[in-house]
């Protein structure tokens, strides 16, 4: 019976053999096929395919994506990927850029800890490799900074060590989606290595299946017979293909051999045959892979240019997005009427559009012209906020469904109305204003951030007790809204109302009040012109700013 190995690494990532050496070794071992699945790179595939020409062995173009889920490092293997497609190349470039940023920072930290190394020295030492922590460990050992590879990890580059810098990772759901779009077969690699309970692993597999997972690595080098049976049962439960691999790394993993693992691994060719059948069916019926996505985008500094318009390319990509059946949601801290005004001013009229105002306090269905969700401040809360702001000499206003409610006209309100065109009702009666059923209050102090910060500090204990969130939408504006509200909860609520898997949601923003939305979505996009905090929260940072269609350049690959 022919044997295969569907999880193999070369020296293009963290293996020790060249792709050519792998082909020759696989022939020696009697394999009929193997998948080259280097970490986050396809650089070795061309060499392996060329080495296999005219020989009785199939080289399967593959990859192993590193992703993150609930604090765990989850790996998704892709088989039969179209590694030369423009889409796939762009995605890998994004991965490489993320790795470079992370690796330069790790070099900086090692140098600060008395182990000088530059990124340039590191890549010179390991040419044509995707740099991983294993390479750092080898470098430290070779240059006498540690006495063992283990010491390097234990003292310096392990997960909680001083020189470790986590790399921004995609979710496993996004990894599955990328592989599918690249024409490949996504496989959950070595599920039992993640140390999850049965319930949590089952939940992960169910979620991935809903996104489009095709297979599960049920045959693996470290599995006992009972563990293999358990994984085969899990695959059957979710109608997933069985996959199998040694996770061969050559001398980088002593005692672990190609095809046979630690001596007892056996992967029959029939496993690959069934994957091929599934792959052929996927290509013949691409519509089964389609999933409805939903984009939540902030306005100023994200979707809109400086002059509060959208670029031609952004409009083109949004049109493609809507035509593909995806949803579009405009999100803002502004009142809902102002968000409606923006929608009209930039002439966005797509089916399946929604508006979120007041930082998540109200959701508006554009097709049916109605509010489908609202959460308001309580009258006594509005009253307390307004009285305290007045005592600090700070402008404060609130809202009705149609107007701004302000006690009087002043320079802060005039500044606010340069952009926000919602009409104003002036009413000095605080009790009347408190009955407005408002979703938020807004304090404004021009060139007085310290004064706003004092107000925030004084209200902090009360706000915590009352469940009120206070955050800055810019240095002059301090917003108050129910903690049960917020852009993040609104993302979850709308996904729930529309029965869209939250992992198929995408959020884009540039400021502090966008962070909860970024963190609640399956993919978070931070604008390069955004704050450091939002960049740290996001999974992707745009290459271009909002004035140069930065969001559109990322979004086009998500359609």
Summarize the topology:
Layout: E1 3-8, H1 19-28, E2 31-36, H2 45-52, E3 58-69, E4 72-79, H3 86-112, H4 119-125, H5 133-142, H6 149-157, H7 172-181, E5 185-188, H8 198-211, E6 215-220, H9 225-237, E7 241-245, H10 269-284, E8 294-298, H11 312-323, E9 327-331, H12 336-345, E10 353-357, E11 362-365, E12 370-374, H13 379-391, E13 395-399, E14 404-406, H14 411-416, E15 424-426, H15 430-434, E16 441-444, H16 449-466, E17 468-474, E18 477-482, H17 487-498, E19 505-509, H18 515-520, E20 523-526, H19 532-537, E21 540-541, H20 550-555
Parallel strand pairs: 1-2, 2-3, 5-6, 6-7, 8-9, 8-19, 9-10, 14-15, 19-20, 20-21
Antiparallel strand pairs: 3-4, 4-5, 10-11, 11-12, 13-14, 13-16, 16-18, 17-18
Helix pairs in contact: 1-2, 5-6
Would you give an account of this structure?
The protein is of the alpha/beta class and 559 residues long. It folds into four domains: 3-91 and 170-288, Metal-dependent hydrolases (TIM Barrel), CATH 3.20.20.140; 99-157, DNA polymerase, domain 1 (Orthogonal Bundle); 294-375 and 485-558, Rossmann fold; 379-482, Hypothetical Protein, Haloacid Dehalogenase-like Hydrolase, Chain: A, domain 2 (2-Layer Sandwich), CATH 3.30.1240. Helix content is 39%, strand content 20%. The strands form three sheets. Strands 12-11-10-9-8-19-20-21 form an eight-stranded mixed beta sheet, sandwiched between helices. Helix 1 (19-28) crosses helix 2 and helix 5 packs across helix 6 (149-157).
